[in-house]
Amino acid sequence: MLTKNQLGFLYMFLSVCTFSVMDLLVKSSGDYPTGEVLFFRGFFGLLPTYFLIPKNELKAFYKTTRPKEHLFRCLTGLMALIAIVVALRELPLAVVVSLSYAAPLFITILSIFLLSEKVGVFRWLAVLIGFIGVIVISEPGFEKMNYFYLLPLIFCIGMAFVTISIRKLSTTEPIWLISIFFTITISIAGLATIPMGWVMPSFQDFILLVLIGVTGGSANLFLTQSYKLSEVSLVAPLKYLSLIFAIIFGYLIWNEVPTLKTLIGASLVVFASLIIFRREIYHKEKIPSATRHE
């Protein structure tokens, strides 16, 4: 029988694998408008979430007392999703994945203002190291004025807001409701782009687009279940396996070979994030200890 932490690791591993497949599919969907891809991601992403809704709440699943908070989470999540979809199409896969690891840096900064958390010297040092890594990875973008390198950072900012919003919402709202509102928002935003021109997909591409939604929806659920079963700081480092998948997929499918700068920058960002996760564990262990001595 697996413990909760072991199950959390398993779900995180499934989440990393599924998100990596979704990234691969999104990068392969370059012949279709971004809005069309968003619609498929949202509409078919509802399928996995649907099965989590309790039967007694199916008729009134949409009821909430916190519509403004849901709206903020949905809009920031939509911003992040659009940024990462476009980035995946325009940049090497390993570069996008490496830059996306900077999300904990932005979460640390925003938590000061939105959650009134105190950030010590070690975490500020981690933020500094992480941003040095981001600069190293993004240097080709600065040299060539390639603004697409900014998109993964916009994704990170959006995900930082999303993470903090979910922390607040999950105190009263079920995870499936938070997920459903987001996927509905993606679907509506995608539908709104029909006048800009959609492309009728072939049967093979239709399956690809559907799989973007199913893998995206499933990956989010695996991630949520992982966080529910174990401490975020314990399982989050498994996310860095996605860089290995990105390097393999990028090389085998698009003949992309990550540069030395990308690998060095990614190492700095990963190291910085691990410091942040370790400090979170330290503070969580310290608080109960201090309480016992009072």
Structure in words:
The protein is globular, with a radius of gyration of 19 Å. It is 75% helix and 0% strand. With 294 residues, the protein is mostly helical. The chain has 13 helices and no strands. It has one domain. Residues 289-294 have low confidence and may be disordered.
Topology of helices and strands:
Blueprint: H1 4-27, H2 34-43, H3 46-50, H4 67-90, H5 93-100, H6 103-114, H7 121-144, H8 151-169, H9 175-191, H10 203-229, H11 232-235, H12 241-254, H13 260-292
Helix pairs in contact: 1-4, 1-10, 1-12, 2-9, 2-10, 4-8, 4-9, 5-8, 5-12, 5-13, 6-7, 6-8, 7-13, 9-10
Query: Rough shape?
Result: globular
| Number of distinct beta strands | 0
Biggest beta sheet attributes: none
> End-to-end distance, in Å?
37 Å
So how many helices? 13
**Would you list the SSEs in sequence order as H and E?**
HHHHHHHHHHHHH
Class per helix and strand makeup: mainly alpha
Concise structural overview:
With 294 residues, the protein is mostly helical. It is built from 13 helices and no strands.
Q: Which key features would you list for this structure?
A:
single chain; 294 residues; mainly alpha; 13 helices; 75% helix; disordered C terminus
